[in-house]
Design brief:
single chain; 427 residues; alpha+beta; FAD/NAD(P)-binding domain; Cholesterol Oxidase, domain 2; 2 domains; nine-stranded mixed beta sheet; 11 helices; binds flavin-adenine dinucleotide; binds iron/sulfur cluster
């Protein structure tokens, strides 16, 4: 049987592994190890916060190993999952179909989405669990004409305890993440190689013959007839560059900024995060307890249950680049303009629930939806294959998104990975 090496086990990688195993003998190579949710009690974090010991978001790895944080040149903090299941293990469980930009290239993903909705549990049934503050905020959004809508969630609602800890790992297994696809791939015979980082694609003439890796046992090569790169929006461009394939400086990340205030009894942290969203032109608004800001931003020094927070998630311009050494992600003036406008709306929402405008504060500017560094174009609608890549190398993760979604991308990445897998199976 032909051998396929899949790099990365997140949304894209796990999907391809599940789809290809059987027709190919698949090996998934993952830089991270087994995923474990954040177990430290939040009351034990409290003294560290108070003592100012949590001064740099990159320290998160000491508390919670699966979460990797790096700093872009400038102010933005970049979040990704380095673990089996990739960044899907850190998701807020939002399940949106966001393929308008892809459809505009002539790629119809209807069949893939139909399959996804049969395979992944998606629900909006969490509404009846919303707390008083969430309901009030929802009504305020409605009254302001912001058209909020409950967000569909990737979860088995019956198993969900409404704990609000989705982004630091689900302890009940209620939240879907891509480890469920990996499990199916492994049950069908796929191999998993963890804690092993791919440094580059190994070439034999014009074709790829495997990947060079570094793991616990040192350096080696894993051979493959087909290589699928799905190391995420920060990992894939680096592997390609190290293999002599240049990406484009068109990185987008969907920056997130929270606008918060003290609000005794808010208890937003103990409820499903991002219960609803308001879709606006170039950004979305939601409610969101931001653990990152709570841990690392000095303004968020209030007790965990006494903070109300709204989120702006921006569809940023495709400007920025990832290299082995750093990530550059400038916000251009039009990004700033929309961010300022959205921030002002959030301050107004908070004012309408009785919070003094002058008492609001911001969170850490962060982002966790990297992609678009090798964007699909019209010319690739049939092949899903960039001419920059060797014939037997494909990219199947957020890197190929044509432009920023400004919205949760997991389902769209899974759909793209399914389409690529189908083409590979038909080859
Ligand atoms: C806090 C947070 C919340 C989010 N919430 C949502 C949400 O609710 N809904 C939603 O749709 N999206 C959400 N997202 C975004 C979503 O999780 C990601 O966009 C998606 O998982 C990206 O899929 P991917 O396949 O491109 O990469 P990833 O899922 O990031 O997978 C890439 C994998 O490759 C591995 N890797 C990297 N480099 C190498 C290497 N050199 N060698 C081997 N392996 C490597 C990584 O360890 C990782 O496991 C969230 C993101 C964050 C940070
Ligand atoms: S709210 Fe808690 S139990 Fe429910 S899916 Fe999220 S982490 Fe899991």
């Amino acid at each position: 049987m032909r051998k396929a090496v899949v790099i990365g086990s997140g949304a894209g990688g796990a999907t391809v592994a599940m789809e290809l195993q059987g027709q190919y003998d698949v090996t998934v190579v993952e830089a991270g190890g087994e995923f474990a949710p954040f177990r430290v009690s939040l009351s034990r974090i409290e003294p560290l916060r108070r003592a100012g010991l949590l001064f740099d978001a990159r320290l998160i790895r000491l508390l919670f190993r699966p979460m990797k944080i790096r700093r872009a040149e400038g102010e933005m903090v970049l979040v990704s999952g380095r673990t089996l299941g990739g960044t899907t293990t850190l998701s807020c469980a939002n399940a949106l179909r966001c393929d308008h930009g892809i459809a505009a290239l002539g790629i119809n993903l209807d069949a893939e989405f139909e399959e996804i909705y049969r395979q992944i549990p998606v629900t909006t049934g969490h509404m009846q669990r919303w707390g008083a503050l969430t309901r009030r905020l929802y009504e305020t959004f409605q009254a302001m004409g912001l058209n909020p809508a409950p967000l569909p969630k990737l979860m088995d609602l019956a198993a969900c305890t409404n704990c609000g800890r989705c982004i630091i790992g689900c302890r009940t297994g209620a939240k879907w993440d891509s480890r469920r696809f990996l499990k199916q791939a492994v049950a069908a015979g796929a191999h998993l190689v963890t804690e092993t980082r791919v440094s580059r694609i190994v070439m034999n003439g014009s074709r790829a013959s495997g990947v060079a890796v570094r793991g616990r046992t040192g350096h080696r090569t894993i051979a493959g007839d087909l290589i699928v790169v799905a190391a995420g929006g920060f990992g894939t461009p680096v592997i390609l560059q190290e293999s002599g394939i240049e990406c484009q400086p068109s990185l987008s990340v969907d920056p997130v900024l929270c606008i918060a205030a003290e609000c005794p009894g808010a208890n937003q942290h103990a409820e499903i995060s991002m219960p609803f969203a308001s879709q606006q032109d170039g950004y979305i608004l939601s409610t969101y307890f931001d653990y990152l800001s709570f841990f690392f931003h000095p303004a968020w020094h209030y007790p965990i249950g006494n903070i109300v927070s709204l989120m702006v998630k921006l569809a940023d311009a495709n400007e920025g680049a990832v290299t082995r050494k750093n990530v550059s992600k400038p916000l251009i003036p039009s990004d700033r303009e929309r961010l300022d406008k959205a921030t002002a709306i959030c301050v107004e929402v908070l004012a309408r629930i009785g919070i003094d405008r002058s008492q609001t504060f911001l969170g850490v500017l962060n982002a966790g939806h990297p992609g678009c560094s090798l964007p699909l174009t019209w010319n690739e609608a049939q092949t899903m294959h960039s001419p920059k890549l060797p014939a037997n190398v494909y990219v199947a993760d957020a890197t190929i998104l044509p432009k920023s979604l400004g919205n949760p991308p997991i389902l769209t990445i899974v759909a793209l990975a399914k389409r690529i897998s189908r083409l590979l199976k038909d080859r």
